Amino acid sequence: EALKKTRLVFLTKLGGKQQAVVFAGKNAEAIKQFLKDGGTLVFDGDIHSREVRDFLKSIQVPVPLGAKRGEYSAGPSTEEVHSLTSWPLRISDLASVSDGRVCWKFWSNSQCAPYRNQSSPEMAAMVVQENVLGTGRVIFNGITELDIEQRHCDMVENLIATAWDSLDRTLYYFFRLLHDFKTPAWEFARPWAGPKLKVLFIGDQYG
Fold first, then answer.
1. How much is the pLDDT for 41?
2. How far apart are CA 30 and CA 199, in angstroms?
3. What is the predicted pLDDT for the residue at 70?
4. Is-cis flag, bond preceding 64, omega within 30?
5. Range list of H helices, 9-49
6. Do residues 157 and 150 make contact, with C-beta atoms less than 8 angstroms apart?
7. How many C-beta atoms surround the C-beta of residue 190 within 10 A?
8. Do 174 and 192 touch, CB atoms closer than 8 A?
9. Helices 169-177 and 150-164 meet at what angle, rounded to 10?
10. How far apart are CA 99 and CA 95, in angstroms?
11. Other C-beta atoms within 10 Å of 73: how many?
12. How remote is the C-alpha of 38 from its chain's centroid?
């Protein structure tokens, strides 16, 4: 039911068994409908579950290959322009803290890599596939160690704007002010909540 109230879903720090549960049975059908309705589905880190891989195959979304794990700094691609790196804010290409934890060497021709490993730009820090099941979007995200530096907050704002196809300053300020990225349920965030969810978090990282 919550999927009907948002256009941006994060799946973060889920183990293989947890991923399998999320993508089982009716849940998988609900996620497909979410994508058909124009939703953006973000996978933080690696895909661990056969069930998730089977689900992605069923919607014709290849999983990026050649994963390399370890700390690195991510930056916008100089080869591919995407709203995630340019709208509403142009993301700086200056080196940041080590915010990446996994990057990929290979991705499909139907996908783009708007963020790269700054020391090895042939490696994707983020892989995006548009037009999934019509108007949906799937993102494989290797930039999992965000903090409150301005550059990271700008990256979050672009993601929210891209997912909703509109500017939304409320969640930008939520991420800007909250150091440990708890689920949006603290008192100061309640006035922003309303009856319609902005972002749905599934996993351990956000509480």
1. 95
2. 16
3. 93
4. no
5. 16-22, 25-36
6. no
7. 10
8. yes
9. 150
10. 10
11. 16
12. 15
User: How much helix, strand and coil, in percent to the nearest 5, is found in the chain?
Assistant: 30, 30, 40
| Average pLDDT along the chain, 207 residues, taken 10 residues at a time | 82 70 86 96 87 94 96 91 92 80 96 96 97 97 79 84 79 52 43 51 47
Give the pLDDT confidence score for residue 46 in this predicted structure. Answer: 84
Alpha-carbon gap, residue 142 to 109, rounded angstroms = 19
Q: So what's the pLDDT on residue 183?
A: 44
- The identity of residue 121, as a single letter, is P
Q: What are phi and psi of 153, to 5 degrees?
A: -65, -35
Which strand (E) or helix (H) includes residue 162? helix 150-164
Report the DSSP pairing between strands 40-44 and 120-132.
unpaired
Residue with token string 């080869």: 79
Query: How would you label 3-28 residue by residue, b for 16+ Cβ within 10 Å and e otherwise?
Result: beebbbbbbbebeeebbbebbeeeeb
Q: Which residues pair with 126 in a beta bridge?
A: 115, 141
Amino acid at 127: V
Closest listed residue to residue 18, CA positions, set 36, 44, 39: 44
Q: pTM, whole model, 2 decimals? A: 0.84
- The helix (run of H) or strand (run of E) holding residue 50 is helix 50-58
Given a contact cutoff of 8 angstroms between Cβ atoms, the answer to whether 125 and 100 are in contact is: yes
Strand partners of residue 104:
67, 124
